[in-house]
Each structure stands twice: as C-alpha cells, then as structure tokens.
Design brief:
Layout lengths: L21 H6 L6 E4 L5 E3 L7 H9 L3 E4 L7 E3 L4 E2 L1
Antiparallel strand pairs: 1-2, 1-3, 3-4, 4-5
Length: 85
C-alpha cells in the first residue's frame, strides 16, 4: 500500500492535540472518523464528516500528511501527492 511521497520528511513525532475533531468540537458538530496532522498534531475529521476539517487543515496550512487515528487503522495520506503512505 505504500506509495512514493515527496513529503515524508515533513512528518514529526506528534501527539493528538485533542481527543476529537478540533473544528467539530468548536462548532458543536459530530464526526465520522478522525485524522491527525503529522506535522503539528491537529485533529480533524474525515471527508465523510460534515466539516471535512482534516482537509480544511491541509488547505489552510499546507501540512501535507494526515494519519488515521481510528482504532486498528494504520495508514497515512499525503494530500499533495494524493497517495497513501
């Protein structure tokens, strides 16, 4: 499943900033699944969620790599290269 990604060097050793989607928590919304930015630890919801906060975080910051933080999931996504890593 690993694919070439030119942004792997931007990953940091981070921990989630919150236990839920930061945007949804602030707006009183719910989410479907959670993603964590591997540059800064921001927690956002997936694109199946109303807020699409993980994608919005990428669009606002340019931080390219998000990791699923769902139990049992072990994958990351590079928004720039549109690739699983």
């Amino acid at each position: 499943m690993a694919t070439k990604c030119a942004h792997r060097d931007q990953r940091r050793l981070v921990t989630p900033n919150t236990s839920g989607c930061e945007g949804c928590l602030a707006a009183g919304q719910s989410w479907v699944e959670l993603r964590m930015c591997l540059v800064c630890g921001h927690v956002g919801c997936c694109d199946s969620s109303k807020g699409r906060h993980a994608t919005r975080h990428f669009e606002q910051t340019g931080h390219p790599i998000m990791k699923s933080i769902e139990p049992g999931a072990d994958w990351s996504w590079c928004y720039v290269d549109k690739a699983y890593i």
